[in-house]
Amino acid sequence: MSREGCHLCEVAESDVARICGELGVPWETADVDSDPEWQAEYGDQVPVILIDGIEHGYWRVEEERLRAALR
């Protein structure tokens, strides 16, 4: 979950793109503000990383933890 104009989101997207690219894992970003339910759930925590729809973390990418979860 990301938000336009969010510096932390930009950093997280870059990290996720690099890590997922190295592991060959597809990923996508979604605008938290595009859905009222997402905004209510995640609006104060962006960026939020979901893996298979389950919250994995927010605000910063914990690289080793993310790599372990994606393996």
TrEMBL record:
It holds the Pfam family Glrx-like. InterPro entries: Glutaredoxin-like (IPR008554), Thioredoxin-like_sf (IPR036249). Gene3D superfamilies: Glutaredoxin. This is Glutaredoxin family protein. The lineage of its organism: Bacteria, Bacillati, Actinomycetota, Actinomycetes, Pseudonocardiales.
